[in-house]
Give the backbone structure.
Amino acid sequence: MIASAETILSVAIPSPLRRMFDYLPPAECHQTPETGMRVQVTFGRRKVIGIIEAIKHGTDCPPEKLKRAESLQESYSLLSDDIMKLCRWTASYYHYSLGETLSQALPKALRQGKPASQGTVTNWQSTTELDTELRTSLKRARKQLAALEWLQLYPEGVSEPELREAGFSKSILSQLEKKRLIQSQQIEITDRPFHEFKNNIRQPHLTLNEEQRFALDEITDTSTFNSVLLDGITGSGKTEVYLQAIAATLEAGKQALVLVPEIGLTPQTVRRFRRRFAVPVVCLHSGLSDGERLQGWLSASRENAGVLIATRSGIFTPLPKLGLIIVDEEHDTSYKQQDTLRYNARDLAIYRAKLSDCPVILGSATPSLETLSNAQSGKYLHLKLRHRAGNAKPPVIELLDLRQQALKEGFAHSLIEPMQSHLQRGEQVMVFLNRRGYAPSLICHDCGEVSDCPHCDAHLTLHRQPAHMHCHHCDYQVAIPWSCSKCNGRRLQPSGQGTERCEQTLEQLFPNFPVIRIDRDSTRRKNALTEILDTINEGKPSILLGTQMLAKGHHFPNVTLVTILNADSGLFSADFRGLEKTGQLIMQVSGRAGRGDKPGKVIIQTYNPQNPALQLLASNDYPKFAAKLLTERQQLNLPPIGHLALFRAESATAADGINLLKLLRATAEQMRGEGSTTRTLGPLPAPMEKRQGRYRYQLMVHSLRRSELHQLLNVLVQQLESIKLPRALRWNLDVDPQDMS
Ligand code: ADP
Ligand code: ZN
């Protein structure tokens, strides 16, 4: 390294290259550059935004090549020390470029070089008091009344994004504005710190039951680093424990970070948090505009937000006073990013809590085997809630043997009867079918040919609303064919059941009750899901038919019967995590039954009623189910006992990918010293070998020791970077892969 008279900026640049780049500080710079600042530099021919990763006093870069940075974007470190550390750790653990990692940590607006200023926001206030007369006049306009009630809670007004999150659309606000019941103002977003609010709590807490009280005491016992698994059955009041733990955190002048799988699906959760706390509760998720995301991010990093509720990427948001992290539904696979930087936000949450020396709570009714095994080994404190909160009782689960049963479009007679009686009692029935569209395939009755996607190894799904064929893997869409592409036969028949077809069947079977379909297609339109959820929450007897969107965290008190049309497909998955995921899904769906005062029942249709795993689930014994799976993983040294990484190669020809992976395997073999526990498996075709017109191959790397695995991955990634790849060959590395496809 050559010593330099001037300081040198070591800059992380959003490029796949796993290294830093040196620059001289900008000319005429009045600020002192610091780690964590954004800096604009010329990189190749482009001007890019990088992050100062370190300040140095020397460089390896020859003087004639050393360029000056263009400008500093701000006068302070935008990314705090702990976020820099978190990103360094993330980049090294997932063997990814630090420049890209830091770039992903920023909201898009900041990535693009926009100024870090919050700007203004539309703030809505009620202009009147909501008296009985006004209530009566708005009786027909339920939504408007609800919005007005909401605004009554906040004399200082509510920002438009918050109102939208609470489920009130722009048109509802305009209607109220026309009636002069509310008014809006553009206001500067305040930088008022959350701890200046006098009362943290707006609404009183519920009185905890014994289990909840014990859990809360244990959690709040220490304010230093501590990982807690809150293992509570569905409806046991985990959220109430979170709320009270957050209140204690706010009371201590600290901020709380709550990670959730998907915010859009459960607007009630956000409402519940906002109702409870008087300090600003900010949300960050993909449904926001770039400007809104920037505002939320800044609000959190400037200590204006007391609570941040966010999806996966929220783990990278600076919170200077972070005092508690909660990962709700910690088993949910959406915490794992499935492309580019393949991180798991749940795992990063543990590391971040360590950095901030604060507690972290992983909550779930169906904890992942990873987390359970950490709890068993004593790494995590294991707190259990085994009873439902309030008056609710756990649902009774029944397996319905489909063998030799008369079926009507997938419904057994002995399923239709109980559905009818629950509906007639004025209750709601949920039907779970994890397949959208009309039918999963279209088959020629003459020659047996099935309509396939031209780009993937997959059938095309038949949709009727609107009518078309759709590949759910690459989004390819085409008109429904009139005749078979192979034999020209005209008798093309839908095969199997999707939600659209099931909706049709249910409408025929239960003509007197509305069928509400909830899947990605029926909720595509803006606000559609919120409207559907509101209808369900009115509690009128109806059938709620849906995919796994229905399984996630909803609280519908009038649902007393849940039916799972077919549990079998998930029981025999090729993926070693398949059964774990299926079990979690079944327990989560079942957990929607009987959450109110009325008891709940679950009926699962199956051709395999003797299946031991299914029987454990039916006896409502997730812990035993999980223990059984864990024993199997132990026998096979699969995660969480052994550790996995997956190299994937995608290319226009199969040979390119296979050759690359073979090269890696050869290196891995060479590297293997005595006593090494690392093994490779492959190259093997991915479960879906061809997708979007590209051939996909995998090399699995397995080791009993994490450190050994990472040593090898380091070598292999360096090798990959040093070779010139054929055109159109892409590779990626997935550490701790969740999805093996
Ligand atoms: P979970 O997050 O475990 O699914 P929730 O916190 O949503 O459970 O609680 C389920 C229901 O029970 C909610 O309607 C909630 O208001 C209610 N509840 C939670 N704790 C209590 C309590 N201690 N007393 C009465 N009702 C409670
Ligand atoms: Zn396709």
Summary: Residues 453, 455-456, 458, 471, 473-474, 476 surround zinc ion (ligand 2) (CB under 6 Å). Residues 654-671 form the longest helix (18 residues).
